[in-house]
Amino acid sequence: MFQLVTGWVQTLYYGITVRVGDPRPQPGSAKYVKHRRRIHILVVTAYLLYTIYEADWQIRRAGDFYQDLGISPDVDERGIKSRFRRLAALHHPDKVSSAEAREGSEAYFVHLKLAQDTLLDPTKRFAYDRFGPDIIQWRHCSSVRDYVLVGVQAIAPYYVAGGFFMMILGVLGYLEWGRYWRYISFASLAVFEMHTVTRPYFPPITTKLLDPIITRFSHHPPYLPFQQLLLARKIMLTLFIAFSQLGPLLQQPQQAHQQKTEVAQMQQLARLEQISGGTDKEATRLLALDMAPFAGDEAALKDVKARLKDWLVENTIRADPEVRDAVGKVMGRRRMGVPAGARGNR
C-alpha cells in the first residue's frame, strides 16, 4: 500500500515541479531514488500521524461518564448529585409524551443513572478511571484490590502475547532494525500501565504536563487514565510500524556510504597486493642475476650467504636505535666493576 501511494505522490510531485518539455528523473537514477525515498518517508509519517489522530477521535467519540454528566474528573460527590438532578429534570422519561421518544429517553436516563451510581461509589470510581466501562461487567468485585486483580488479569495476556510475538519475530529476523528500542518501548508501556492502574492518584506526567497542554491549546477534555492507556497502546503500535517502515529508509544512505567506503578500501588493498607481488618478483629476479656468477660453486655460495648474513646484522639490525641502545646497556652492565685500563669485555 505504501509503495502504491508513494508512486502516486511522486508522479504528482513531478507533474507540479517539472516543467512541460523538461525530462523527468528516470526510474533507477540517483535523483529518482532519492525523491522516492523521501516521499516514502513522508507518506509513512503522514499515515502514522493519522492513526494517532484516529485513535484520539475514537476515544472522544466513545466518551465517558464524566462527559456524559457534564462534570470534570476532579468533581466531588456533591457536584455529581447536583448535576444528575439537573439532567434528570430534563431527560426523565415521564416528561416525554411520545412512545417512540420515550424508549430513547429511558435508555439515556438509565445510562445517566448508571454513571452517577458508578462515580458516587469510591471503589467503582477508582476502577472506572483506570479500566474504563468494562468494570460494569465485573461481578463479585467489592474492593479496590478485587478490581485491580481482575484488571491486571485482563491486561496481562496482552503483554504476554505481545512479548512472545516480538521474540518470535526477532528470532525469524523480522525485527532487525530498532530491536533494542522495541523492547524498551514495550517494557516502558507495561511499567506505565501497571503504575497507572495500581496507584490511588493519576500519573503525574498527565496531570502536570499532558492535560494542561491539551486544555490550554484546544477544547479537548482531559484524558482519564484508561483513555491514556488506550492511546498509549495505539502510539506503541504506531512506533513499531515506524521502526519497520522508516528504519530501513533512514538507514539506506548510511549503508550506501559505508558500502562505498568498503569498496574503496578493498580496491586499495587489491592495488597494494599487486604492487607488493610485482616488487617481490623484481627483487627475486635481481637477486638471481647477482648470484648467477656463483652458480654451481657450493663453497662460493656458502661464503656469499655468510657474508650477506653478517652484512644484514651489521647494517640493518645493529643500526636500529633501539637495538643499539640495548646492546650498549648490556655492555655497560658487563664492564661494571672492571679496573680502569683493563681490556676485554669482562
Task: List the keywords.
elongated, mainly alpha
Question: Which structural class matches the secondary elements?
Answer: mainly alpha
> Mean of the pLDDT scores?
82
What about the largest sheet? none
Our count of helices gives: 12
Distance between the termini: 91 Å
Shape: elongated
The total beta strand count reads 0
Strand content: under 5%
Poorly predicted regions are none
Using only C-alpha atoms, the radius of gyration works out to 41 Å
Helix content: over 70%
SSE order? HHHHHHHHHHHH
Give structural notes.
The protein has 346 residues and is an all-alpha fold. The chain has helices at 2-17, 30-62, 65-69, 77-91, 99-120, 122-131, 144-172, 179-198, 204-217, 225-290, 298-317, 321-334. Helix 1 (2-17) packs across helix 2 and helix 6 (122-131) runs parallel beside helix 7 (144-172). It starts with a helix and ends in a 12-residue tail after the last helix.
Could you give a short description of this structure?
The protein contains twelve helices and no strands. It is mainly α and 346 residues long.
Please outline the helices and strands:
Blueprint: H1 2-17, H2 30-62, H3 65-69, H4 77-91, H5 99-120, H6 122-131, H7 144-172, H8 179-198, H9 204-217, H10 225-290, H11 298-317, H12 321-334
